[in-house]
Amino acid sequence: MDTDQDLSAVRAVVAGDVSAFEGIVKRWEGPLVNLAYRFCRDRAQAADMAQDAFLKVFRALPSFREESTFSTWMISVATNVFRSHARRVVPEISGLDAVTDVADAREAQVLQRSTREEVVRRTVQTLPAKYREAVVLFYFHEMNVARASESLGVAQGTLKARLHRARGLLERRLRSLLDPRPEPKEA
Amino acid sequence: MDELDRILSEEQVIAPPPGFSRRVMAAVLEEGSMPAPIPFPWHYVYAALAAMAVATLVCTFFSPLVPAWTLTRSLELAAAGDRIGPGVVAWASSGVFALIALARYSLRAVES
Q1: Rounded distance, CA A132 to CA A177, Å?
Q2: pLDDT digit string, tens, across residues A170-181
């Protein structure tokens, strides 16, 4: 992403040139829609969430102090919007029960690879909010702990602990799906 | 990289819907044309609370108009106040500050 272009656009918007925000939208619509999608797994909803995030960024621009890069700040603002939204909306899938049933029935072995992967991603949605957010941000930032922790506004150690806990929960819930060997059921 | 990492790293990339940036800019321009929201007048609230506290003290202890029984009670209260230890005052103050901080944080959370 072009940081200089972002900064000059930010300064222009803050100075009153609202149309300069269009450059920011065009440069960042892809990442924001994709991040929103990881929080809700619904394309239409992701677009609405990303639009809300852009509006929030626009409103908050005067408070951007250039102490961090614009991208870090913007992703952090957007993350807060997506987190609030995700916490308001109950995941549509029953997730764990459905996955466990499928796994127990050994139907996991015959699932198509894409379906299997989608089940894994949707199971992330069933995690408690703080673990889900850690997982989403970690993989969105291509497994970069520093950037993920900045986006979430938590210490790196905290993020690592949440990721560890999230991974444990996911592995337990998806045990049969990820490893077809017979395993005892989750308590 | 294990199976879980592989699956979660290989998330499909979705494209924004057609006309997305146009829709966002329409909302942004509408937002930009609206007057800025009026911030909550915390300064006035603090001033009003301070004025109320002063007025209460003045009315309780110094007003010549207060009935004699009020004055007596006030003196009793003042005497009782003398017996309040600094620890109690510190705890009470901390409680009040915590309450104000909580109220402000809650308002920020609601506004965000």
Answers
A1: 19
A2: 988 888 766 655
